[in-house]
Design a protein that fits this description.
Helix content is about 50%, strand content about 20%. The radius of gyration is 18 Å and the shape is globular. It starts with 7 loop residues before the first strand and ends with a helix. α1 (about 20-30) crosses α7. The strands form 2 sheets. The protein has a 5-stranded parallel sheet, sandwiched between helices. The chain has a 4-stranded mixed sheet with strand order 4-3-6-5. It has a domain at about 10-35 and about 100-205: Rossmann fold, CATH 3.40.50.300. The protein has helices at about 20-30, 60-65, 85-95, 105-115, 130-140, 145-155, 170-205, and strands at about 10, 35, 40, 55, 70-75, 80-85, 100, 120-125, 165-170. It is an alpha/beta fold and about 210 residues long. Bound molecules: adenosine-5'-triphosphate (ATP) and ligand LQESDW3C. The site of ligand LQESDW3C has 15 residues, from β5, β6 and α4.
Length: about 210
């Protein structure tokens, strides 16, 4: 990937921990961040729109896209395939936009290799009981899908330590404040870094 000035943020969590709800609220507070819309082979849930929630594609199309190198990262999660478009992310970062990826831990590991300066956040539910309550309360998945996601949550949580930050989504507003504080601190730091380099470049040029 070419060097850019936008920051790549990753938010991951076990299914039902509340990451989409947190991310959507964060984007309302921080409109300067763009969410990358993923491709998936998962069938749409009621109310989900093509191009807004996901690019819903058939398995054969997804496999073709993998072979063509369309994805910056891709993974199988809960029996479906998901991928992040390389072109979309590069385009946004090159425009100095900060980009947020809502992806799983496998995708996060691939992104860290491609872009080590990314910033990753893992969202934990306050308890297993609450995770199940949220998954069932959402009312979007069958019992079979919910049970599969709950089973997989252990393996996902085992990767929390690989992330730069971990947030517990117990009280929603507190978790949102925590996520926003991370984003703001990172953005401020990268602004400072740019300014520092800018000053040094000017100084070196003046001496020449
Ligand atoms: N802090 C919270 N307290 C109570 N309910 C919450 C909280 N955060 C989110 N929820 C609710 O939990 C449910 C799951 O949230 P959400 O869909 O954002 O999860 P998710 O982590 O994005 O799941 P998935 O990975 O399956 O998309 C939703 O009904 C949401 O309103
Ligand atoms: N590695 C990737 N994981 C992704 C991507 N888009 C979403 N996801 C993760 O999949 C699960 C399930 O999502 P759901 O919408 O079916 O509930 C969740 O952990 C997402 O974060 C992606 O592009 N790459």
């Amino acid at each position: 990937m070419t060097d850019t000035s936008g920051t790549l943020f990753i938010v991951a969590a076990p299914s039902g921990a509340g990451k989409s709800t947190l991310v959507n609220a964060l984007l309302e507070r921080e409109p300067g961040i763009s969410l990358s819309v993923s491709h998936t082979t998962r069938p749409p849930r009621p109310g989900e729109q093509y191009g807004r929630h996901y690019y819903f594609v058939e398995r054969t199309e997804f496999e073709r896209e993998v072979a063509e190198g369309v994805f910056l990262e891709h993974a199988e999660v809960h029996g479906n395939f998901y991928g992040t478009s390389r072109k979309t992310v590069q385009h946004l970062l090159q425009q100095s936009r900060d980009v947020l990826l809502e992806i799983d831990w496998q995708g996060a590991a691939q992104i860290r290799k491609a872009k080590p300066d990314c910033v990753s956040v893992f969202i934990l539910p306050p308890s297993r009981v609450e995770l199940e309550r949220r998954l069932r309360g959402r009312g979007s998945d069958s019992d079979e899908v919910i049970e599969r996601r709950l089973r997989n949550s252990r393996g996902e949580i085992a990767h929390a330590h690989e992330f730069d930050y971990v947030i517990v989504n117990d009280r929603f507003e507190e978790a949102l404040d925590g996520l926003q504080a991370i984003v703001r601190a990172v953005r401020q730091r990268s602004d400072l870094q740019c300014q520092r380099h800018e000053a040094l470049i000017k100084e070196l040029l003046a001496e020449a």
